[in-house]
Each structure stands twice: as C-alpha cells, then as structure tokens.
Amino acid sequence: MSDYEDMWRELGLDLPRHDELLKTLGSAHKDIIASQPNRPKAMTYFDEAVAVAHCKRIKELIDGKAKGKKVIGTFCIYVPEEIALAAGVTPVALCGGTQFSIPYAESMFPRDICPLIKSTLGLGLGKMCPYLPVINMAVGETTCDGKKKTWEILAGMVPTYVMEVPQKKDEIDRELWLKEVVLFKDKMEELSGGKVTLESLKQGVRIINRKREALSKLHSFRKESILPISGKDTLVVTQVALVDDPERFAKNVENLDKELENRVIRKVGVFPQGAKRIMIAGCPMVMPNWKLHHLVETSGGAVVCDETCTGFRYYANLVEENAANLNELLENIADRYLQISCSCFTPNQERIDKVMNLAKEYHVNGVIQYILQYCHGYNIEAIKLEHALKEAGIPVLKLETDYSEEDVGPLKLRVEAFLE
Questions:
Q1: At residue 2, does pLDDT exceed 80?
Q2: Is the pTM higher than 0.90?
Q3: CA contacts within 13 A on the Cβ side of 51
Q4: Residue 20: which residues within 8 A CB-CB, separation 6 or more?
Q5: Pairing relationship of beta strands 70-74 and 89-93 according to DSSP bridges
Q6: Exposure of 110 by Cβ count < 10 A (0-12 exposed, 13-18 middle, 19+ buried)?
Q7: Which of 139, 105, 302, 290 is nearest to 223 (CA)?
Q8: Could you give the CA distance from residue 192 to residue 329 in angstroms, rounded to a whole number?
Q9: Whose CA is closest to 61, among 141, 4, 15, 121?
Q10: Is the Cβ–Cβ distance between 136 and 70 less than 8 Å?
Q11: Is 1's pLDDT higher than 90?
C-alpha cells in the first residue's frame, strides 16, 4: 500500500485517516469473508479486487484519464452503465457501507438520515474516498428525499448531474424516463466530447449484458439443495461489480461459474445439511457492509437470495440488443431500467410479486426484510410485503439497522430465534 501514498497525497486524502480506514476494512474482510471454510478458489480474484479498490483500481482510472477517458461516480443502479461506456466514460459506484466515515458526515448532516448517505458523504468530507477526487462528474438520481437534497451539497464538492427517476410506471412516467435516458446520453457526450453511435451503444449493451448474464448464472447456483457458495461470497462478488472494470469482472465471474458448476456436479457444499435457506429483501448492501449476511450465516442459516440493489435488482433483465437505430436502442435501455422495482415507486405490487416468485425459485424457508434506519420507502413497504409473505405461509422478520456494531448482539438473538 505504501507504493500508492504519493498518489493518495496528490488526490488530497488525509493519509493517517485513510490508512486507519483501510486497516478497518482489511480486518473486516479477513474476519468475515476470508475466514470462511471451503471457499471457491475463484474467489481469490474478488478478494484481491476488494483489497485494491483504493489503490490499483484508482491508478487504473487515473491512467485512463491521462489517455482522455472520463470517469463518473454513481450512487444508484438506475444510471445506465451502457450509455456511459458508449460515450467513452467509465462509471464507478461511490456508495459507502462503513460506519467509520459517518461521524465526518454528522458534523454537517442531520444524524437521523440514511446511513448510506452519511457513510458516502463522510468518506468525501473526511478526505478518505480516493474516487471522489478522480471522477469528472457525480451522477445522482431522485429515488429518495434524502438523496435529492444531498446532491445539492455534493455539487459544492464535485460537478453533479441528477437524473429524474419517475415515481410511478404509467405511460406518462415511461415517456419522462425515456427523455431522462436521452438527456443522460447527451450529458455523457458533452462530458467526453465523443458521440454515442448505434454501434458504440450496442457494444456497451453487450459488455453490461455479459456482466448481468454472468451474475445471473452465479446467483442461480444458490437454488441448489447443496449450496456451492456462501451468501457472503456472492454478496462480495456483486459489490465488486459496482467498481471493477466490467469486461474483466465478467470474465472472472464466468470463471467462478465454471468452478461452481463443477462443485454442483461433485456435490461440494459450504453449509451443513439442514441450514435454513434465507432470502434478504430490501435495502442495498454496499462494500464493506457484510453485517446481516454474517449474522445469518454464523447462526445456522444460509443466505440463498438477495432481493436488493446489490443482488437480484442489479443483474435481472437484459437490454434487448437488437435495434434498427439509436433511438430504438435507447428505448430498450429505458425499458430495462424501469423494470427495477425500487420502493420509490407507487403503487409497487411489481416488487411484491417478484419477492414471492423469488421465494419459490430459491426454495426459501424464510425472508428477512433488511431496512436501513430512516429508509422510509422500504420500511413502509415492508408492511405490505410482510402481509403477502404471511399469507403464503412464509416466515418473515423485519430488521431495521445501520452500519455500526452496537446492535449486533440483539440482532443475533433475533436472527437465531427466527432460524429456530
């Protein structure tokens, strides 16, 4: 890591504070992820990707910028990666999943807002995020009130563009969203100085569809009765997807898929027989938030499905590549992204139906609704989802938490009681 100190210094990071953050993250990965027995060998790549997220990956982005590439930082899976790539722009996620940075945000922000917002902005305000000084532009969206006002603060730190995500899915909303997708294409062209063509956009679609297909196959192995990979490892892979080079990432997920396929044939599992199969539904879990998965999988359960933005919602549904012209392909992209069933939509029966279908596909014994504190959308929607699950005879538990370790004891007791 010392090889990158000059780079971090040039980026304006607080080196002692950043070093402390890296030690905290490294320790968490060692204790929670790397300590698991019988892990797939192909997970070595993703462990390394976590380890180099603040050094080697940052240098790659800086080297790309030296060759004329632009970089955007995103906070939501509604931002179309395909369009950024087609314009010669590299998208990376900026979301924070660590308690370490939250005090730095609370010096400016209210305490009673989403921990994801506070963690993300705290990394920037505390000069611990190497991505923020590298990006040319941040791209926000209107999926929650907290984020909408955060972009106004972020704009004082870095150029910020906001996409309007509609709150319903009627025809007028679809028309609005398509316009937003086209405007995003225009903004990426303006940023890069390049032009998005039908062929460059098709290439972007192919790259991101390949990533989705590899992830979809990875998650499909969790339907097996003998599970070849843990929920924690699968979560790590999807978290890495948000910051890694997409082509390199897809290739390494495909390698992992081959190993898991072989494990299924040989009946190699990572959990004891009888482990309760759990779906986690709700808020996203960005790196290094492995808290709930760790609680479940050290209490006799196995997380077999993630109905989150760092799970099913991220990789589900491909963009239809076949299009006669650029406008048609942009429509296909808009259609695909509007299938994401975020709790920001009303009504949102679509998400309830998806959770019920996933529960059947993955043969779950129970569903844990994961709610980040002050996330009103998922917290209120949990009422309707709980009713649907109970009607179907599927046990359900709602856990509202943050990134701290203070509530781990009580949460573990509740998880253990639920698994019994």
A1: no
A2: yes
A3: 11
A4: 100
A5: parallel
A6: exposed
A7: 302
A8: 20
A9: 4
A10: yes
A11: no
